[in-house]
Structures are given as C-alpha cells and as structure tokens.
Amino acid sequence: MTISIIGLGLIGGSLAISLRENGFAKKIIGVEANADNAAKAMHRRLADEILPLENAVNQSDLIIIATPVDALTKVAPQVLHLINDQQVVIDVGSTKSALLEAVKNHPKRNRFVATHPMAGTEYSGPEAAIPNLFDHKYTVICDPESSDADAVELVEKMYLSIPMKITHFEGATHDVHTAYVSHISHISSFALALTVLAKEHDEERIFELASSGFGSTVRLAKSSPDTWVPIFRQNRDNVLDVLDEHINQLSRFRSLLIKKDFETFYQLIEEANQIRKIIA
Predict the structure, then answer these.
(1) What does pTM read for this prediction?
(2) Per-residue confidence band for 99, with pLDDT thresholds at 50, 70 and 90
(3) Residue 185: left (phi > 0), alpha (psi -120 to 50), or beta?
C-alpha cells in the first residue's frame, strides 16, 4: 500500500515510522509545506520522497492528513477533490466538529474517515517523531456511519496493525470528552508554568528544586502554540465549560485554605484519589 502523509511532524512522522516498520505501508510519500521540515523528514527517512500535494494524492491508496487543526478544514476538502472512489482519506486531528462541518456536503465525504489517535508528547516537528508512540493506545473513529464501510474497514485495519485499540464516537461528543481529558490538561500546564515563572525569576533555583513530579505536571507547557492555539480556537466552547469547572475547584481549595478547613481538604483529596480507577 502506498500512503501519503500530509504533515510529517510528531503524529504524522510517528505514524510513518510505525506503518513502515510493521509492513502496512510499502511506500510512504510525504507532503510538507515547510522546506526545513521536509529536509528533516527526509534526513530521518520518515518518507521515501516528498512530493507536491496533487502528485502525492494521485499515487496513494490512503492519504493521512496530519496538519494543525485549522489547516485541516482547508486541506481535507482540497484532498477529497483529488481522489477517486477507491482511495481513502483520514485525519488525525484533536478536534472534529469544525472539520466534519467542512466536509459534510462534499461529494466524496463517504471516502473520508475522521480519526483521532489518542497519543502524543510535548514535542513537535519531524525530529519529535518516535517509534511505538501509538502502541496499545486508543484511537477514536468519529461518525463512521458517514463513511463507506470499506473505508472504515481499511482505517481500522491500519490502526489495529500498529497495534491500537479502537472506539467510535459522534464528532461533537468527541470534542466534549477531549476537552476534559486533553485540552484542559494543556491549559492547566501552561498556567502553572506561567505561575512558577512569575514568582520564581531565578531559573536555576527552579531547576534545583524541580522533582520528577513537578516535571510531569508542567511537561505539557512545552507544547507548541502552533498546535494548541488552533485546538483551543476550534473547541473554545467546550474548553470554556471545562475551564469554568476547573476554576471552581481551584476556588474551593483556596477557600478551604483560607478557612483552615483541612478536614474537608482531606476529604476532597480522597475523592480525587478515585481517579486511579480510570488512570492506573
């Protein structure tokens, strides 16, 4: 199978590594608007060649769009215009409502499958691509009933080959859930990093005291604004709902500290410990 990957950053590049290593892809064609990223991708052998979009699509059985989500809404319809009835197009974006609206009335909508592999790191670009990033993680397939059965079957076969676990969501529901499990985590990490930097101007002092716990808490603050501002823009309403609840919980802890009510503080921490039932 020949696969084109549009955007060879962390997600696109890591998929390229996995699909080459497991033999699912016989040939990988990269499409990269950024010349520097294209050179880095070829240096790392993430693709067999880099081609212009139309040339790449014409040669491919499967086209994976791995651009930032703002670009997705423009690129996906453009790619669908180029394909025939046997080719399949997927995305790997973190938001779905705007994208699904952009392709809703496209005559080739049935050849498009909306997906979101739930994996990543705080790094970006072709140099961030790593093997085994997706192994045994979940991937979400959104609104599969809007896609041809053979297209969904091919995409599921690809993800199972990695191997990943698969779940199905309606697009808007996906955006609500990712606001809770991913998007709020990034905002919290950005805010905590800014809080620490505002109070501790001597960076060496921070590094001396920073434990692995602190590092894991603010790890996401190193994530690229090029990736995350478009996500926050597209999922603004859901993120605002989650952020309001998060602020309420922080205010609750603040009030308990003011009142020196450490008994209730203890109870809330015990309640929070129940997250272990979800996250081992």
Answers:
(1) 0.93
(2) very high
(3) alpha
